[in-house]
């Protein structure tokens, strides 16, 4: 059966370059967010962040945090920063994608599809402008296929990703993170709704916010029906 026909997690990144600016958007079961980065080709001169759908009451504060983090920075330096956990990790990833593609002249779309577990196995693939560029099978957080990655833990893929051809490293990172997020579909909501129990892995889960954060936000299942991520949003230009 085709992966498109299986129930599971869906995530779409849409990257739209323009003159002196670039918009990066993401939508999945749990999130819908966008950043617009204004730049002169080298330095970021401004940034707009928009949390259209987020899982916690405290998440919108991260819009100001991501602007504080990146405005005034060189595009080439984005990937060298080490403050992802103090930001919303999703806005942060959008900013990095924007920096990587700021001088592109064509839009780019990545789709991540991860099946729900069948016999504890998930099938996952990432498509670039509709074409599959990387896939794997994961079981119990360990990759089973392809052969070159078999036995590697999903959260320990950095050396393997670094060994891939340059054009596959970006989609591999997006697929890794999407596969990890897909795990949220199998966890009862009541077991993932107490921020005070979460490690300090993002803006909301920092000690000063996790005690007051409340779970909110619509959860969508894009594997049911015809709507796909970002269908309801048009690029800003």
| Count of the domains | 1
Order of helices and strands: EEEEHHEEEEHHH
Helical content stands at: 10-25%
Beta-strand fraction estimate? 25-35%
Biggest sheet, open or closed, and with what strands and sense? 8 strands, antiparallel
Record the strand order, biggest sheet. 4-3-2-1-5-6-7-8
Roughly how many Å is the radius of gyration? 17 Å
The number of distinct β-strands equals 8
Low-confidence stretches: none
Q: What structural category characterises the helix and strand content?
A: alpha+beta
Arithmetic mean of pLDDT: 96
Query: Per the principal axes of the C-alpha atoms, what is the gross shape?
Result: globular
Can you count the helices? 5
Kindly report how far apart the N and C termini lie.
Answer: 37 Å
Polypeptide structure, described:
- This protein has one domain.
- Helices cover 21% and strands 27% of the residues.
- It is built from five helices and eight strands, in the order ββββααββββααα.
- The chain has an eight-stranded antiparallel beta sheet with strand order 4-3-2-1-5-6-7-8.
- The mean pLDDT is 96.
What's this model, at a glance?
Helices cover 21% and strands 27% of the residues. With 237 residues, the chain is of the alpha+beta class. The chain starts with 7 loop residues before the first strand and ends in a 27-residue tail after the last helix.
